[in-house]
Amino acid sequence: MTYELVIVGGGNMGAALLGGLLAGGRDAAVLAVCEASADRRAQLGEDFPAVDVRDDVAPCAGAVIAVKPPDAAAATTAAVASGARRVLSIAAGVPISTLQAAAGPGVAVVRAMPNTPALVGQGASAIAGGASAASADLEWAAAILVAVGTVERVEEAQLDAVTALSGSGPAYLFLVAEALEDAGVAAGLARPLATRLTTQLLVGSAALLVARGDAAELRRMVTSPGGTTAAGLEVLGRRGLRDAFAEAVAAAARRSQELGRS
Ligand SMILES: NC(=O)c1ccc[n+]([C@@H]2O[C@H](COP(=O)([O-])OP(=O)(O)OC[C@H]3O[C@@H](n4cnc5c(N)ncnc54)[C@H](OP(=O)(O)O)[C@@H]3O)[C@@H](O)[C@H]2O)c1
Question: What number of other Cβ atoms are within 10 A of residue 258's Cβ?
Fold first, then answer.
């Protein structure tokens, strides 16, 4: 039996992808998972009873490499040895050149940078193809990742910036959430109430942004001259919030470059 797709590494991301693919209507019979940890295999077997979960890479046409970065090259070689002619790696920071060397010639390699909201089907991924990847290969990769969110196509050189923005970005927003919760408590709210209000604030604002699509315009819409929001924004402007985010993303992009080189 040759599987359409094997997911190599059934950890957080591998399981999220598998769940998304099944929820999106992929037939469990065309999918398999290769997972090194016996405990994790047992859990995957419970969560996905119709999927072949094993400790080796089953014969396959394509593979997703969802192991930790140091294991990505070996996992790629194993997938190709089992027949994969297309490889999609989500291992952070592992360059296409490394993956291609591990895959050998004639195998299409696509590298992706997803982010943590993929765990709940709301990820933002960007993909880049190597020289061996034709547009059909990029479409193949996008069709996999769209199971857990949106997919953008970029050049590989842009993946450091993608990592710094949407890859690390959830942590920036979680920090914003923590800070707002603390600020709500300092302003007199009970912690559970501040937490609930902050969470729905982020969900609702994101939904409005999706619906209207222009953050600056929405900000102006909720800011009456001389009102409460204007008073709050004045402090954020004076304390340099935009500069702080600009420096944070630039620092994360530099770190991504450094990690990629090492
Ligand atoms: N989590 C995120 O939000 C996120 C975002 C962007 C990119 N990524 C990338 O996604 C990849 C997976 O992340 P994760 O959070 O899902 O990691 P994880 O939960 O640690 O999952 C990796 C799994 O793969 C197994 N494994 C390791 N080597 C293997 C091999 N050769 N064959 C089969 N299975 C193997 C590991 O088993 P052992 O534990 O026994 O080694 C582990 O269960 C990473 O490269 C990460 O950089 C993750």
Answer: 11
